[in-house]
């Protein structure tokens, strides 16, 4: 199956010589969720704006379902839904009128059944007669998504969709995204919440200084770059790691009540069995053992720091 979104050597240089995109190439599969991670100013929003036709590229090509965004702009843009970071809604416009207007902008015939389905899916049907100024921040975000879905796009861009939303509403937004994916909508989202990408995304792309550092399956990235730690709780606290255990690279947890051993879980030999034997030989009594794996946030921070270095 050919990708629904093809980006090849995309570049963007702003007046003054600021290079926001430095030859980004990316293919997005139909029906997947791709999360773009990166620090502020990395180029994520510029990438989305360029693909959606809000910013003119300085070089490279973008195709949406085979339609070039410059040579065949109308056909390409009709396949894209965009939810920007900023909430841009007419405060006195009613929800239903705003969503209908958005559909009309693409020259599509009236389809109240589709719009009702979208509003129900986003838990907005009961608010259809409300003016947007009467809605909460979370509801306004949902209205933005409803407007972006009004013309039945195949690709949906969500630029920081849960920014400024509390934890409960964020979880609700995750459910919305998962339902959209189940319906076959391709979703590209940017986020600063690493747990969001870890929970939702099929693949993760890391952007920094206008370059795409990598794109990889979320689970594979976690397996490839995630470290695992064995936390060894001690019955008696230590002042320092015993010299006999120096070769293990153990870290003493705060208060000396535990030792932390980091290992690669992909390795055939983790060294844990030998470590436990040496702990016993050193006369250390254990209270408990537990393990934890690096989070996507830790992996992301490590990648960005490597790129800066």
Automatic annotation (TrEMBL):
Query: What does the UniProt keyword field contain?
Result: ATP-binding, Nucleotide-binding, Transport
Molecular-function annotations in GO: ATP binding; ATP hydrolysis activity
The record lists the membrane-crossing segments as: none
Q: Pfam families this protein is in?
A: ABC_tran
Which Gene3D superfamilies does this one have? P-loop containing nucleotide triphosphate hydrolases
According to the entry, every stretch annotated as the ABC transporter domain falls at: 5-234
Q: What is this protein called?
A: ABC transporter ATP-binding protein
Provenance organism? Rhodosalinus sediminis
- Organism ancestry: Bacteria, Pseudomonadati, Pseudomonadota, Alphaproteobacteria, Rhodobacterales
């Amino acid at each position: 199956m050919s990708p629904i979104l093809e980006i090849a050597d995309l570049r963007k240089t702003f007046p003054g010589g600021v290079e926001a995109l430095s030859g980004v190439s990316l293919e997005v599969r139909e029906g997947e969720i791709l999360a773009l991670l990166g620090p502020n100013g990395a180029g994520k929003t510029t990438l989305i704006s360029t693909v959606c036709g809000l910013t003119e590229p300085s070089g490279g090509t973008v195709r949406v379902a085979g339609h070039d965004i410059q040579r065949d702009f109308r056909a390409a843009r009709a396949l894209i839904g965009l939810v920007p970071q900023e909430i841009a809604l007419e405060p006195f416009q009613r929800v239903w009128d705003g969503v209908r207007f958005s559909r009309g902008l693409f020259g599509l015939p009236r389809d109240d059944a589709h719009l009702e389905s979208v509003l129900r899916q986003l838990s907005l049907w009961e608010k259809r007669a409300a003016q947007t100024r009467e809605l909460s921040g979370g509801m306004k975000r949902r209205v933005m998504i409803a407007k972006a879905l009004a013309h039945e796009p195949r690709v949906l861009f969500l630029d920081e969709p849960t920014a400024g939303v509390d934890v409960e509403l964020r979880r609700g937004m995750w459910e919305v995204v998962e339902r959209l994916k189940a319906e076959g909508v391709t979703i590209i989202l940017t986020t600063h919440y690493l747990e969001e990408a870890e929970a939702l995304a099929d693949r993760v792309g890391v952007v920094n200084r206008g370059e795409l550092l990598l794109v990889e399956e979320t689970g594979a990235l976690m397996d490839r770059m995630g470290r695992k730690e064995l936390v060894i709780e001690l019955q008696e606290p230590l002042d320092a790691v015993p010299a006999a255990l120096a070769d293990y690279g153990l870290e003493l947890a705060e208060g000396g009540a535990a030792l932390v051993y980091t290992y690669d879980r992909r390795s055939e030999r983790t060294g844990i069995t030998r470590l436990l034997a040496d702990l016993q030989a050193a006369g250390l009594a254990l209270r408990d053992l537990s393990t934890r794996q690096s989070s996507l946030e830790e992996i992301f921070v490590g990648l960005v720091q490597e790129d800066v270095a």
